[in-house]
Amino acid sequence: MHILEVKGITKNYGKRCVVKNLSLYVTTGEIVGLLGPNGAGKTTTFYMIVGMIKPENGSIFLDGEDIGQLPMYQKARRGIGYLPQEPSIFRKLTVRDNLRAVLEIKGYPDSDIAGMVEDLLDEFNLRGFADRNGYRLSGGERRRTEIARALALKPTFILFDEPFTGIDPIAVIELKKMLTYLKNKGLGILITDHNVRDTLSITDRAYIINNGEVLADGAPETIIANPQVKEAYLGEEFRL
What are the residues facing 4 on neighbouring strands? Predict the structure, then answer.
């Protein structure tokens, strides 16, 4: 088992403390949600874990190694994948060539790449649109391609920023199946998303962030029943 630990991170913008001494963890083989109201500090927390923002205090550890001040690309080399909300595939390349490009950048031998591409097309059910250019993909097809590209780099953890945004309900169902598949493959997954219901429906645990701090954490059923979470975020009528 591998573990990604966030310990006591803090971030200020001017005189405003956006994230206050916040701690959380994700292990391989689980899906963890990072949720909260707008302006609660969850996006800043997520970006510090990714490496887009550096924490001012506290740190982030991967299997005990302090990676808190490392930039995103160095975290990626250590096995932390990141899928942004915005489209990240090469729009003018086909799905097949998008996969090939990532494998070439990773430095795999040319003799191995063709077979690896075919394996990814099959594993993530991309063959039906493998020769379609990126700009012609639907939101769900694009998201599946992005996940396949991320997996080509063989990460230990994948951090998803708003994965359910911009895709239709059928694609959401397919994406949730894919996330569960990745979990069962042994990856650790951290999701932040405004779609609370879909996120909680697939997470093993979740953290609710409010005013820059962890308001509550635990299994979805525990989160939903928490009176403080109801008052600050979900409301009394929320149900899965």
Answer: 26, 62
